[in-house]
Amino acid sequence: GRFAPGLVGLSLYATHVRRALELVRELRASLPGCRAIAGGPHVSLYAEAMRADTTFAALVKGEADRAIASIAGRVLGGDMPGILTCELPAGPEIPVAAWGLAEGHEGMQWLPIQLSRGCPFNCSFCEVHALASRKIRYRDPSVCLDEIDAHLRLLPRVHTIRIVDDCPTLDRPRFKSFLSEYLRRGLPARVQLDNLRADTLDEELVDLLRRCRTPSICIGVESGNPEVFRMVSKGETLDEILAAARLVRQKRVPLHLCFVGGLPGSTFEAEMDSLRLAKSLRPEV
Question: How confident is the model over 166-181, as pLDDT tens digits?
Fold first, then answer.
């Protein structure tokens, strides 16, 4: 049948906003009566600046896991609620993802999952404190493992589990226990972390990730210039980053490094310090 939704929802990032607005306006022009709602990081940070734009019937701030069905019902019923703020759910209240509802889910090869949300650190370039809060909210590891197991049965092409937490290894013993249980269950997909703090890495954790066939370990460096790095306020040291990177290479796991260009206080020479550091550590990416 003809694709004719009554409601469209978008999760917005700042880099996509202009194109997203164009798409929604085109869709509403071709489907009279279709309404739209938006959430995501951009809305959570800049909803007030979007208030005057009538493209969206609702602008949803925060994490809408528990509220989205109610909000959708209100908008479909003709309501124009404007800006809505959702409370952050506690860890055990974060629902299991329903990837089976996504169109084309049969072709998924990477399965994202959050074991926690939030990060207690104060890195100058990051807005997680305004999105997921500085209080880390942990999900039950056994629930997460059951979720992975169920999705691997549903999605036979998945070859990699992507752990996309804001700070996945903050509680190192907890995370090691999760990996150990993952291995004990014999789950077939490899495990990858989207990001990792150097000061949470040790030999046992690298060995566990190797056993889980991680394709790489990515360490956030941000800047190789000591003064710029200090202003980032990461709460760790460049020496810890160097030691962690060398440990990863020693264990023969592909090393990735993440730098942020154009940080406050940076100069051309500071950016060259980052380049020199990266070359000395010889990452794959």
Answer: 999 999 999 999 999 9
